[in-house]
Amino acid sequence: MRIILLGPPGAGKGTQSERILQRFGIPQLSTGDMLRAAVAAGTPVGLEAKAVMESGGLVSDRIVVGIVADRIEEPDAKSGFILDGFPRTVAQAEALSTMLAGKGMDLDAVIEFKVDENALVGRIEKRAAETQARGQAVRKDDTPEVFKQRLEAYRAQTAPLSDYYAKTGLLHTVDGMQQIDNVTAEIMGLLEPHAERVES
User: Fold this and answer.
1) CB-based burial of residue 166 (10 Å sphere; 0-12 exposed, 13-18 middle, 19+ buried)?
2) Per-residue pLDDT tens digits for 57-98
3) 139 tagged catalytic
4) 84: which DSSP letter?
């Protein structure tokens, strides 16, 4: 089962990825983790990425898709994977589709988390306050200012993926503002039919 989780930062994709992993045994693939692993392993595409990063450049879509292509060949991803944080743009989605087709694979579902962005900012502010109250440092990504910038980037670059995947018939939306267990139940309901097909 090959799925993509879409939604703004803070929508709960990480939490639900863990639950999908526990239920179906498919790994969550984060581009950041994959990049670091490819660089550390010294794979050809990892060495290329390392050179770009060391020069202060942004890693191209071609390199990122190459890293995903290598990663999904690993044994733990044989029965499927969860992509979270990739693709970020329609161009990346098109490159991903081409790469998967070249391997005789396709996606089973794209699940989009619909959330109230103002409520998300409130959640982040609360989390930052709780972290400070415990006497711990707030991660830079978890400050409300940085979070708002990440939301803006998501709206500009990634939100158009919703229309792109809706046209393919792969898009399902879930209400990300429900209780966490309710979100999980909705996602499992969407994914179970795909799992049964895989198991049969």
Assistant:
1) middle
2) 778 899 999 999 999 999 999 999 999 889 989 999 999 999
3) yes
4) E
Question: DSSP labels for 167-185?
Answer: HHT-EEEEETTS-HHHHHH
Q: Are 59 and 52 in contact (CB under 8 A)?
A: yes
Q: What is the dihedral of CA 165, 171, 176, 181, to 10 degrees?
A: -140
88 is catalytic: yes
Q: Which residue among the candidates 88, 114, 123, 148 is catalytic per the annotation?
A: 88
- The model's pLDDT over 93-141, given as tens digits with 9 standing for 90+, comes to 999 999 999 999 999 999 999 999 888 888 888 888 898 899 998 877 6
| E-only strand ranges, the chain | 2-6, 28-30, 81-84, 109-114, 171-175
Question: Domains, the chain, ranges and CATH?
Answer: 2-26+79-199 (3.40.50.300)
Q: Which of 126, 139, 155, 197 is catalytic?
A: 139
What lies within 8 Å, CB to CB, of 197 at 6+ separation is none
Residue type, 133: A
The active-site residue, picked from 19, 23, 127, 148, is 127
Cα dist from 133 to 119, 121, 137, 143, whole Å: 21, 18, 10, 14
Output the six-digit token pair for 73.
């060949």
